Amino acid sequence: MFECVVNLAEGRDPSRLDDLAHVAGASLRDRHEDPSHHRSVFTLIDDPAPLLEAVMALASRAYRLLDLRSHAGVHPRIGVVDVVPFVALDPARADEACAMRDAVGRWLADSWRVPVYFYGPDPHGIIRTLPDVRRRVRAEHAPDLGPARPAASRGASAVGCRPVLVAWNLWLANTPVATAREIAASLRRPGLRTLGFEIGRDAQVSCNVVDVATVRLSEIYDQVNSLAPRGVHHAELVGLAPRSVLDREDPTRWAQLGLTEDATIEARLGASARLGTTLQSPHPT
Fold first, then answer.
1. H helices of the chain, where?
2. Which of 102, 149, 261, 269 has a C-alpha 20 to 30 A away from that of 251?
3. What is the CA radius of gyration of the chain?
4. CATH number of the domain to which 226 belongs
5. Last-in-domain residue among 141, 161, 181
6. Pick from 137, 189, 164, 187: nearest CA to 245
7. pTM for the whole structure
8. Structural domain containing residue 112
9. pLDDT tens across 90-108, in order?
10. Could you tell me if residue 284 is inside a domain?
11. For residues 250 and 14, what is the distance between their CA atoms, to the nearest angstrom?
């Protein structure tokens, strides 16, 4: 099976989010929304044909419902259908995930006239990361596919293929955003990407663990807890995590780390799933 974690520029309107979830159908395994980020994360997992159908249906509905011109949130974004990464849950099938990336990228460019920026490995083996894409957009580099300039209502889209990652937030109560950004910068290293956000009177250290085999959530939590003036208020998992992430942590800390057995890829796929260590990869993108 394959995963696609679609990030959309909508996190506040329940009726729109329900509508989007409906068109995703049976492939939808999890939905996470955040009104401050004004962003939602739809985790779809399925075999290739139904997964592609669900991703295209979700993107089409998003373009019909949402308008980037009226969007404002703390999370950086380049488009309504902002990020579309494909993940092979069996790393031996990574090439198939990249083929789905390419197919959806062509479809977005041709059907919706959206500028598409690819990330992940290219045909020459060079790996472009999502942060690389954001830098390319800021520098006004030409997209890989589609029109040179996006429609103001739809924006552009970053379409990728990558190994499994864990998106995870640490909330800091009554903390200036400057402090959160300093903490985030101090944590940043290969395998861990971090940003600091202002959430009202609070702040957040947002983490993408791109190497789930070596970076432990408890270690990040303890570092942030020691650096934040008032410590960590709570932790939040965005989307799903592989079971291996839980297995590497003390079960007595799962609640503190925002982890539950139900919020694993394996649990959402059912007891028949046999994923194990195949969800780990030494080559994050």
1. 14-24, 48-65, 94-112, 130-138, 177-187, 217-227, 243-247, 265-269
2. 269
3. 18
4. 3.30.70.670
5. 161
6. 164
7. 0.92
8. 2-161
9. 999 999 999 999 999 999 9
10. no
11. 35
